[in-house]
Design goal:
Elements: H1 3-6, H2 18-34, E1 38-46, E2 49-61, E3 67-76, H3 78-139, E4 145-147, E5 154-157, H4 159-165, H5 169-175, H6 184-198
């Protein structure tokens, strides 16, 4: 429309949508009532498509202080609105990615903490088992000894075993082995059983 087609006509006469006319009339009434500038945003269909507009309604005062008229300053903000909407979508996508990543990290942390708790539980159980074994081993009334399979050297002996041989623990661990304290005939008889036991074929 040309400027001449606008002059002297109301919004209804210019064919503006009823909802836009209602909003415009309401905001315009507020400007006349409070004497302060107001803004209104609206969309309007144009030959190039739907466009976004921002209108400033500015009161102009007469010499007596009354509002003589209201100036409407309207500008096309379609590109700005589109940029704001694009930025909003980007922010929403970023927030979603952050939430997803945070959820993944929380899940990873929970698994990590679960592994730590399980590891500590196993360590405690193992330590208790070792302590129980050591008490039974040391307090046993019969002689018990542990030896390496490779050379039958003693790696652990209990007090009853030391008493049986008349030796102290340090002597047995430092220099003696099963072969050193056994008769040759016994070794020949026990060798096959010992080898089978070390292979896991016999208990």
């Amino acid at each position: 429309l040309s400027p001449q087609e606008f002059i002297g006509k109301t919004n209804e006469e210019l064919g503006f949508p009823e909802e836009l006319v209602s909003d415009w009339t309401r905001v315009l009434g507020e400007v006349f009532e409070i004497g302060q500038e107001k803004t209104i945003e609206f969309q309007f269909s144009t030959p190039t498509g739907l466009r976004d507009y921002l209108c400033r309604l500015v009161p102009e005062f007469a010499q007596d202080g009354s509002i003589e008229f209201v100036a409407g300053i309207t500008r096309d903000v379609t590109e700005r609105k589109q940029a704001e909407e694009a930025l909003q979508r980007i922010n929403e996508e970023l927030e979603l990615r952050v939430e997803e990543r945070t959820a993944e990290l929380l899940q990873t942390n929970e698994l990590f903490l679960s592994e730590i708790v399980e590891r500590r539980r196993v360590e405690v159980a193992l330590r208790e088992s070792e302590e129980k074994f050591r008490r039974i081993f040391n307090d046993a009334p019969i002689g018990i000894a542990l030896a390496r399979a490779s050379d039958t050297r003693f790696v652990m002996v209990n007090p009853a075993f030391c008493k049986l041989l008349g030796c102290v623990e340090s002597e047995l661990l430092a220099a003696l082995s099963c072969k050193a304290i056994s008769y040759l005939e016994d070794l020949e008889k026990e060798q096959p059983y010992a080898e089978a036991m070390f292979r896991g074929e016999s208990n």
